[in-house]
Structure formats: C-alpha cells, structure tokens
Specification:
This protein is an alpha/beta fold and about 240 residues long. The protein has helices at about 5-30, 45-55, 60, 65-70, 155-170, 205-215, and strands at about 35-40, 80-90, 95-100, 105-110, 110-115, 120-125, 135, 175-180, 185-190, 195-200, 220-225, 240. The chain starts with a helix and ends with a strand.
C-alpha cells in the first residue's frame, strides 16, 4: 500500500501534468492562425482585396478571435458590400462569402460619386469611380442623401436605366457613360464612340445591333445613330458620323 506522502506526491504530479496538458491545449488554440482564405461572391473586389480588408492585422488572423469576431461582433464596413459571412473549413482555412450591394449606376455630386441601385436608392458614396459601373449624366436632381432615393423629377428614369444596364450586361457591352437628354433619350459613351439610342423603345434590339457592329467600331471616333432601329425591318442601315 502507498503511504500518505507518496499518494499526495503522485496526486500533485497528476495535477501538474493535467495543468500542463490544459495549458498546451490553450496555447495551441491561441496560436492557431488563418492561413488560407477563399473568397466567393465578389465582383467589385478581387479576392486579395477582400482578404486584406478583413484580415488586416495579426489579431484578425487568430482563428479563435476570428470566430468570435465573426459570430458576436458587428462586421466590418466595406464599401459596396452589403454583408459577408466567414465559414470555417478547418482551424486554418476559411471561406469568405461576400454579398455585394446591387449598383446600376452613379452620378456626380459635390466632388463625390453617388452610387444607386435599381430602385434609385443611393447605396454608397465614394471619392473614386468604380470600374464596370456606368456614369449617368443629364439627370436633374436635388439634394442627395445616403440610403434615400435619388431625387429626380421623373422616377420612371430608373426603370429605363435598369432595363438598359441589364441588356448591356446580357451582351457583355461596357459603357463608360450613359447620357440622358431632357426628353429621356439615351446616349452611350464607349471610349471615342457615342451611340445614340434614343428612347427606351426596342432597347433589346438596339443593343443587339450594337453588339454585332462592335468589331466595325474598333478604332473609330464619332457618333453611331441607332435611334432609327425598327424590329420589322431586317435590312436597316444606320448613320455613323465621324468626329
């Protein structure tokens, strides 16, 4: 049989071993770092940009802190991003799912660029232009407030802008600017070429014609007039006036 001193000594040894094991586990957990980040749902930012925005410090890279911050604290505010979700796929591997704001265009206002969605709601203000989003000009509006509708006299203009930008997206056509006149007629600005589309009528057919003509427009400078498009006339000719 063990005497009392030997029993207490072994008990102390067991306690120290257990404490050491516990501390080792804690140290392992605290030292775990996020090393691999996969980003999905991103279009306006590159995966590298999203990773740098979310993991911009050593603490952000700590797996335990990252989990806590993602679950229990407000997410970081990123321009043009509605929200994001971090999904752990392992102690050091995460997937970042990005939910971007819906943006169809922007207007210039007091040295800033005000971006709006399909309903005309101002969703973002920025000091620089976002590539891939057209600049909308020719609209008359009052004071702009973030998260409020763009105050234009004709609210139907947003339906026209949404329709036009959707059709452009279908045909993978990039426009630098969409210019409207006081009658609501649209002109696309594509580098050195202006494309006068006229009214919103038959917009899908007009953009389809533009898509077929893009190779012929390469390197040209001037104005193409597609406002005369007639879906019943398959042999239409269009005017192009060089600058």
């Amino acid at each position: 049989m063990f005497n009392r001193e030997e029993t207490e000594r072994k008990s102390h040894i067991g306690l120290w071993i257990g404490l050491a094991a516990f501390l080792a586990v804690i140290l392992a957990v605290v030292s775990m770092r996020v090393t691999t980040v996969t980003v999905t749902g991103n279009r306006k930012y590159t995966a590298e940009q999203i990773e740098n925005l979310l993991f911009d410090s050593r603490l952000d890279r700590n797996s335990l802190y990252c989990y806590y911050e993602n679950r229990f604290r407000p997410h970081k505010q990123i321009p043009f991003v509605e929200d994001y979700k971090i999904v752990f796929q392992g102690p050091s591997r995460v997937e970042v799912i990005v939910y971007e704001k819906s943006v169809v265009g922007y207007v210039s206002y007091m040295s800033s660029y005000m971006y709006f969605d399909k309903d005309g709601i101002i969703v973002e203000s920025a000091s620089s232009r976002l590539e891939g989003i057209p600049w909308i000009t020719g609209l008359q509006f009052g004071q702009i407030v973030l998260n409020q509708p763009l105050p234009v006299a004709n609210q139907q203009i947003f339906e026209q802008i949404m329709n036009l930008t959707q059709v452009l997206s279908v045909y993978e056509i990039q426009a630098d600017q969409i210019r409207y006149d006081k009658h609501g007629n649209a002109t696309l600005v594509m580098g050195e070429v202006d494309v006068y589309l006229g009214s919103n009528k038959d917009m899908n057919g007009k953009i389809s014609e533009l898509h077929d003509m893009l190779p012929e427009l390469a390197g040209l400078s001037g104005t193409l007039y597609l406002d005369t498009y007639d879906e019943t006339n398959s042999g239409m000719w269009y005017s192009f006036i060089k600058k």
